[in-house]
Design a protein that fits this description.
heterodimer, A: mainly beta, seven-stranded mixed sheet, globular, B: mainly beta, six-stranded mixed sheet
Chain lengths: 112, 116
């Protein structure tokens, strides 16, 4: 398995506060992804990165921003958290060329 | 555009019975298809993938899936269920071109329960 860690694993925060989730990989994979998982919706892509400083929006990007300053780190920021952003967030990495995506353990975020 | 529909949000089988989880996809280009499994409080793990080679794909833990272009289906099967198969299963399609290039689109998930 690709070495993917996410931090924090659990977080409770209040509406209106900024939150940053971190994904760290040790496999030197080029592509990285942030998904959110909600019951009945499967996983939905928030943002993705195809290289250092190269990022793009997914299908549910409103209210989120990302940054990738190093190959191994991909940060997801909720600029002003809302209750609708309560979810489980997964990071994934991919080597490229239609290879499989490897998933991290997830971060459970609760916005009160 | 691409999409995935998993028929049945919950499937319940007895230990030793056939497992059949249904997945239909929509894609404007030849798809790459995946099945992932998620155990409680864990991330997703790849079970198997179809990438335009053999239409019958074998995966881990005794699972297999058959790509049927005429039916736009990629159903997951296992001849004999085991208690350890209880998990949530996700079908996903990946675009090979256009605006869907490289992006995975997931189905809603199917929770498999295995009874003794």
């Amino acid at each position: 398995d690709a070495g993917i860690t996410q931090s924090p694993r659990h977080k409770v925060t209040e509406t209106g506060t900024p939150v940053t989730l971190r994904c760290h990989q040790t496999e030197n994979h080029r592509y990285m992804y942030w998904y959110r998982q909600d019951p009945g919706h499967g996983l939905r892509l928030i943002h993705y990165s195809y290289g250092v400083k190269d990022t793009d929006k997914g299908e549910v990007s409103d209210g989120y921003s990302v940054s990738r300053s190093k190959t191994e780190d991909f940060l997801l920021t909720l600029e002003s958290a809302t209750s609708s952003q309560t979810s489980v967030y997964f990071c994934a990495t991919e080597q490229g060329g239609y290879n499989e995506q490897f998933f991290g353990p997830g971060t459970r975020l609760t916005v009160l | 555009a691409q999409s995935v529909t998993q028929l049945g949000s919950h499937v319940s089988v007895s230990e030793g019975a056939l497992v059949l989880l249904r997945c239909n996809y929509s894609s404007s280009v030849p798809p790459y298809l995946f099945w992932y499994v998620q155990y409680p409080n864990q991330g997703l793990q790849l079970l198997l993938k179809y990438t335009s080679a053999a239409t019958l794909v074998k995966g881990i833990n005794g699972f297999e899936a058959e790509f049927k272009k005429s039916e736009t289906s990629f159903h997951l099967t296992k001849p004999s269920a085991h208690m350890s198969d209880a998990a949530e299963y996700f079908c996903a399609v990946r675009g090979a071109g256009g605006t869907s290039y490289g992006k995975l689109t997931f189905g809603q998930g199917t929770i498999l329960t295995v009874h003794p």
